[in-house]
Predict the structure of Sugar ABC transporter permease.
Amino acid sequence: MSGLAVAAPEQTTTPRPVRRRGSYRWSARGFSLPAVLVVAVLLYLPFLWTTWISFTEYNGLGSPSWVGLDNYRAMFDDPNFLTSLRNTLIWVVGSITVPVGLGLLIATLSYGMRFGSWLRLPFLIPYAISGVAVGVVWRFVLQNGGGLSQALDALGLPGADSRWLSDAPLNTIVMIGAAAWQQSGVNALLFVIGLQSIPREPIEAARLDGASGWRMFRHMHWPMLRPLTTVVVGLSLVASLKTFDIVWVMTKGGPGRNAETLAVTMYEETFVNSAYGAGSAVAVFLSVVTFLAAITYLRRQLSAERTV
C-alpha cells in the first residue's frame, strides 16, 4: 500500500459569469438616475418655467398672457436696469480684486510663520457669518451717524459727514468692502492650502540661487498657485454676479434704486412690483450672463495652462 501512488482528486472550477460592458453602463445609469432627477426637478424645470414666464405678462394671479419679447425690450430701455447692470459690473471687478487680493496677501504673509494659523483665524471667522448678518453689522457701522461716522468725528478726521450708504457709487464700493471682509478669510485659507501643496524641492533650489521675498513669490509661488487661483477667481466671479443678500439688507437697492444689482432688480420686479414677466426676464438674462462668463473664463484659463 505504501508503494502505491494515490492520485489527487481533480478540482473542478466553475467559470465566473462574464458581465458585458452594457450591463455596467446600465448599472451606472441606474445609480446616477436619482441625482439626474433631482437636478432636473430643482434646476432645469424651474429655469424652463422662468424662461416661459419671461415671454408673458403675469402678476402671480390668473393665467399668463403671451407678450413675446416685450419684457426684454422694456428691460433694456429701463434706466434702473442699466444702473443695476453697471453696479453688477462694479461688483464683479471689486469681488475679484479685493477679496482675492487680500486673501492672497494674508496667505503669503502668514504662511510659514509661527502661529500663522492663529493669525489667519480672525480673518476666517466672518466667513462663518451669514450674508444677512454681515449686512446688519455693516449697516450699523456705515449708516448716517453710525459707528464709522462717530469714530471719524471723535478722532477729528475727515469723512464724518459722508453718506456711505446713500451716495452712488460710494454705497456700492463700501458694500463690496463689507463682502470682502467676509470672503477674504476663506480665500486666504484656500491659498494656504495651495502653498502647502507646492513641492519643497524647487523652493529650496530657488533659495540656494538667492531667491527670496518678492522674487520667490513672483517666480515660484505665483506660477504654482495658478490652478488654485483659477478656482478662487471663478468662484468669486459667479458669486459677484448673483450678489443679493448684503445689498438688500444694507440698502434694499436704494435710495432711489441706485445701488441695485441684477439679482436685486430681479427680486424687486418679481416680488415687490408683482411683475413676474419682467422679473423673469431679468432672471434669464442674469443666468445666461453668469453661465457665459463662467464658461468663457474657464476655457481661457484652461487654454492658457495648456500653452504653458
Observations:
- The chain is about 70% helix and 0% strand.
